[in-house]
Amino acid sequence: MLIKVQVNGEWREVDAWPGSSLLSVLREELGLPGSKNACEQGECGSCSVWLDGELVCSCLVLAAQAHRREVRTVESLSTSERLHPVQEAFVRAGAVQCGFCTPGLVVAVTDLLGRDPSPDELTVREALSGNLCRCTGYAKILDAVDLASWWKREGIW
Amino acid sequence: MEVLLPRTLEEALEMRAENPGAVPITGGTDLMVGINFGAIRPELMIDLSRLTDLAAWRLEDGLLFVGAGMTYARIIRELPQMRALAQASRSVGSPQIRNRGTLGGNLGTASPAGDSLPVLAVHDAEIALIAAGGRERWVPWDEFLVGVKRTSLRADELILGARWRPLGGPESFSKVGTRNAMVIAVASLCFALDPQTRTARVALGSVAPTVIRSPEAEALLVEAMEHAGAWDDPSAPLPREAVEGFAERVAASARPIDDIRGSAAYRRRAVSVLARRALSWASEERAEEAMAS
After folding, report:
1. Span A106-134, average pLDDT
2. B3 touches chain A (CB under 8 A)
3. What is the pLDDT of residue B16?
4. What are the chain B neighbours of A56 within 8 Å (beta carbons)?
5. Of the candidates A77, A146, B159, B266, which lies 20 to 30 Å from B106 by C-alpha distance?
6. What is the pLDDT of residue B181?
7. Which residue among A59, A108, A130 places its CB closest to the CB of B93?
8. Residue B266: which of B276, B277, B257, B275 has the closest Cα?
């Protein structure tokens, strides 16, 4: 079916199988492989994107449900010259190991800090409870959130 | 496979009437797993996620109505005073899941593990169903949830929402799983004390083909509280045997099975522990309120 969706500010049209998830359309049809495909059941958060401004697992959104809606992916965060401050914080804090979970976590952290620039640790843990990382043990991810949160409070972003 | 995208409830009902086999989808947090894994291939789906009519709640004549399209995230944000409902909603999946999953989804899927369902059971909720032409009917929760993933929803109907009278006393929802987030309940329990009507209510999830109430445990507790004078004096302690008896009767009313998430014996034990905890939280809350006033 023909699906028209605004992705990262640009209207795109795809002719997709009606049972496709938003994730597969982003990755396979629209050339946006930043959102990762891992569990396909909403457990890992690696495919996190914004749908009409809300954080969702794109694997659990039927692509047709995004028709005439706005999607923002991790690709919207950085430019070719500059990483997004949350991405920069992940690099500086050493919060990236294999990197597979990183795009989903970056999106989830950006979502959290957009709503709450200085969350306490429990708030951070709850906000990131839908994102699995099997490398870091999370400690450095929490450090990255602290750093990005500090930059946000300092008005750097 | 085809997906219909109605913009209004009327359109959706017409589509449903014309295509009785069509599968409604809103948050997709359950259905999409089946589709992604090839376990289900509905020929036709109707996307209800654009129907703003369903994504609303209201308090009217002392009754709370929660629309089927209300997400758990919105319930947590907008209905925090409905404590058990908010607690149950907060225990659903993860933030991403709570932004998409809806009350109507829990009802339509009718899994015995649906987190909001014990809350509806405790409040004797009625489920509103609607068919084309606006024909509405209200069905008590236990006539709506009739088996494992089975409801009395007719092929031409959609779920509008659920309504119930909020209770004034202590209430809680708790669940047991392998971790805090992203967990399907191994056992869950909703408990409420209503000092005004002198009733106790307890509902269990994941321990029977549907969510169930435990009238035997409720009756025992009401009588024990009467006996201890606890309805009149919130700080009057309940005898230990009454607390144990309540927990035992809760466990006895469970009809759990062994499955991948837990054994029947573990589930029976888990609901009795949850029952004791919920009762102690409620007793503490009443005692604290009495001290404060």
Report:
1. 97
2. yes
3. 97
4. 96, 99-100
5. B266
6. 87
7. A130
8. B257
Per the CB < 8 Å rule, is B37 touching A126? no
How far does CA B83 lie from the centroid of its chain? Answer: 12
With tokens 């009519």, the residue in question is B53
Question: Least CA distance to A58: which residue of chain B?
Answer: B96
Structure tokens at B137: 């009917």
Residue B132 has a pLDDT of 94
**Rounded mean pLDDT of A137-144?**
97
Q: What does the pLDDT read at residue B235?
A: 92
Query: In this complex, do A130 and B5 lie within 8 Å of one another by their Cβ atoms?
Result: no
pLDDT tens string A44-85: 999 999 999 999 999 999 999 999 999 999 999 999 999 999
ipTM of the prediction:
0.97
Question: B3–A18: do the CB atoms touch at under 8 Å?
Answer: yes
Q: How many residue pairs from chains A and B have C-beta atoms closer than 8 A? A: 92
Give the torsion sign (CA, B81, B84, B87, B93).
Answer: negative
The conformational region for residue A147 under phi > 0 = left, psi -120 to 50 = alpha, else beta, is alpha
- Is pLDDT of A1 > 90? yes
Name the helix (H) or strand (E) containing B191.
strand B187-194
Tell me the three state secondary structure of residue B135. strand
Distance of CA B114 to the CA centre of its chain: 6
| Beta carbons of A64 and A51 less than 8 angstroms apart | no
Query: pLDDT below 70 — which residues of chain B?
Result: none
Residues 167-206, chain B: which have Cβ within 8 Å of A? 180-182
Q: Give contacts of A55 with chain B, Cβ < 8 Å.
A: 95-96, 99
What's at A34, amino acid-wise? G
Cross-chain Cβ contact A61/B28 below 8 Å = yes
pLDDT of residue B179: 87
